[in-house]
Amino acid sequence: MASPLVPAARGIVRMSGDRVVEILRRVELLSDDTTDKRARRYRACVQLGEPIGALDVDVMLWPTTRSYTGQPSAELHLIGSLPILDAVVDRLIAAGGRAARAGEFTMRSFLAGRLDLPQAEAVLGVIDAEDPSTLDHALEQLAGNLSRPLQTARGELLNLLADVEAGLDFVDEDIEFIDDGDLVDRLGSLGSLLRQTSGQLRERSASSSAFEVVLRGLPNAGKSCLLNALTQTESAIVTEQAGTTRDSISVSFELGGYPIRVTDTAGIESRPSNDPDAEVLAKAQEQAMEAVSRADLCLWCLDATEEEPDDALEHLRSLSTQMQPHKKVVEHWGVLTKGDLVSEPPRWADDLSDSVSKVMMLSALDGSGIGDLRSGIVEMAERIDATEVGSVMGTAARCRGSLVGAIEAIERAVEATQLQAGHEIVATEIRDAAGLIGDVTGEVYTDDLLDRVFSRFCIGK
C-alpha cells in the first residue's frame, strides 16, 4: 500500500503506511542496511536539487505497527519554509508516496483499533477546541470516558445474549443457563448505565453554546410578537407604539432537542445628534449588531402590510453585507410578519432573494407559519451540529438516536422476560441493543458513517 504523506504543520511532514521504510530508503533518509525495529529519532539529509540543494532533516521513525495509525510511520522535521516543504513532499511522492486525504491518519488509527469512533471524533475536538471547557470535554472523551461504559454495556449484552441463546439451543434439556430474575436484574443495570451515559451527553450538549437566533428589523416590524410566538412565552412587551424594545431581550429554550437562544433587538433607527435619545439609540444599535455578528441565524423581520418598504430593504441589504460575523456560519432569512393581515406575499418579497437565503410569511397572532419557522430552525441546528468543527458535540448528535434506541430495546427485553413472552423475543431485543451500541462505538459501521465523521477533519490529521 502506498504511504500517504502530507504537511501536518509548518515544518513537519507526516508519513504512514506499509512502504514508509522503503520510501525513506529511496530518498536516502534511511540507510539500506538498517534493521533496527525500535522507534527512534535521528538526523539525516535529503537532496532536493537546485536551487535548494541538501537539507538537514530530523526524522522520527516508528518502523513497526506500534504507532498512532497502527502502521509504520514517520515524521520529518525541517525548516518551516513553504517552498522547502513543498519540495520535500514532491520528492517523497516521486519516491512512491501520495498525499493523504482529510482525516486519513485518524481513520487508519480507527480501522487499526487504536481508537474507537468517539475517540476519533475527540481528536477533532482537541484540535479545534476554542475554549477550555470544550477542550476539557474533548480530552475526557479521548481518554475514553464515553467509550468505556458503552463497551462494558455492549460486552455484557453479548454475554447475556450468549446465555439466552444457549438456553434456546438446549430448550429440550433440563439445563438453565440464566433464570428470568437474574436476566431482568442484569438488563435493568445495563439500562441504568446507558441512561446515565445518555444523560452525560445531554448535559454536555446543554453546556455547549446554544444555537443563536437574532431578530432584526425596523421599529414595529413585529419582532417582539415573533419572539413570544417562537419561544411560546410572554417575554417581550408588545404594544402598538413603535420602538418599545430598546435593550436586547434574550430567551433560551429547547427545540427539537437543541438548546436555542432567541434575541430580540432594538428596531433599526437613528436620530440627529441633538436628539436627547440619540446616544441611547446608538448604543442599542451597537448592541444589536454585536448580537447579529455572533448569531447562527438572523431573522430580518419586514412588515408584510407595507406597500413600499424601501427603508427596510435598504437596511437589510447594507447591514447584512457589512457584518463581520464571529461564527463560521451566519444565515439570513427574510420573515414577512403580520401575515394574517394580507392574503398573499407582497410584490416586493421577490426583492429579498438577493440578500437572504430563505423567505417565509407568518403571523405571530394566529400562529400561521410559526411551526414551519421552528422546523426550519431545528433543521439548521442539525446541519450545523453535524458539521461543526471545533467541538465534540457531533458525537452527541450522532449517538443520541442510537442510545435511545438501545435503552428502549433493553426495556422491551425486560418487559418480554417479565411477561414470559419467550426468550426468542428477548434475544432479538438484546441483539438490537448491542448492535445500536456498536453503532456508537464503531464496532458496527458503514462507509457512509465514516465519510460523515472523517470528512470534518482537515488534511494531515
Structural features, described:
This protein has 461 residues and is α/β, with parallel strands linked by helices. It is built from 14 helices and twelve strands. The protein has a six-stranded mixed β-sheet, covered by helices on one side. Helix 4 packs antiparallel against helix 5 (132-142) and helix 6 runs antiparallel to helix 7 (180-207). The radius of gyration is 30 Å and the shape is flat.
Quick synopsis:
46% of the residues lie in helices and 16% in strands. The chain has 461 residues and is an alpha/beta fold. Strands 3-4-5-2-1-6 form a 6-stranded mixed beta sheet, covered by helices on one side.
SSE series: EEHEEEHEHHHHHEHEEHEHEEHHHH
- The largest beta-sheet arranges its strands as 3-4-5-2-1-6
Work out the helix count.
14
Gap between N and C termini: 19 Å
